[in-house]
Amino acid sequence: MQINITGHHVEVTDALRDYVTEKMSKLERHFDHVTNVHVILTVEKQNQKAEATVHVSGTDLFAQHDTDDMYASIDGLIDKLDRQIIKHKEKIGDHKQKSGGVKNMAEA
């Protein structure tokens, strides 16, 4: 998984980079086909926003979260992306199982 981190009006320190990388590994635990992640950290007045685009096999997922603390914004972002990846994974699994085999024809 390749992670690109960009900062707008904020310097991306090693601590922030390590924190994002550590949290993004949580996403890879749920779904192996995460290829590329682009994270943008932004500061606007007192608002600190984290947003990310995740490229997975089949689709791109986007989420953003903003709070007063950058680390809390990153945590909220990871939670949102985690839910989206789990939903995407279930959707792929359901799609493959709904292929209407002989079992489904017998029940109808």
Concise description?
The protein is of the alpha+beta class and 108 residues long. 47% of the residues lie in helices and 34% in strands. The chain has helices at 14-30, 70-97, 102-107; strands at residues 2-8, 34-44, 47-56, 59-67.
Structure description:
This protein is α+β, with helices and mostly antiparallel strands and 108 residues long. The chain has a single domain (2-78), classed as Double Stranded RNA Binding Domain. 47% of the residues lie in helices and 34% in strands. The protein is built from 3 helices and 4 strands. The protein has helices at 14-30, 70-97, 102-107; strands at residues 2-8, 34-44, 47-56, 59-67. A 4-stranded mixed β-sheet has the order 1-2-3-4, with helices on one face. The longest helix is centred in the last third of the chain and has 28 residues, at 70-97.
Strand content: 25-35%
CATH architecture: 2-Layer Sandwich
Largest sheet: 4 strands, mixed
The H-and-E topology, N to C, reads as EHEEEHH
Distance between the termini: 44 Å
The count of DSSP E runs of length 2 or more, i.e. the number of strands, is 4
Global structural class? alpha+beta
Tell me the layout of helices and strands.
Elements: E1 2-8, H1 14-30, E2 34-44, E3 47-56, E4 59-67, H2 70-97, H3 102-107
Parallel strand pairs: 1-2
Antiparallel strand pairs: 2-3, 3-4
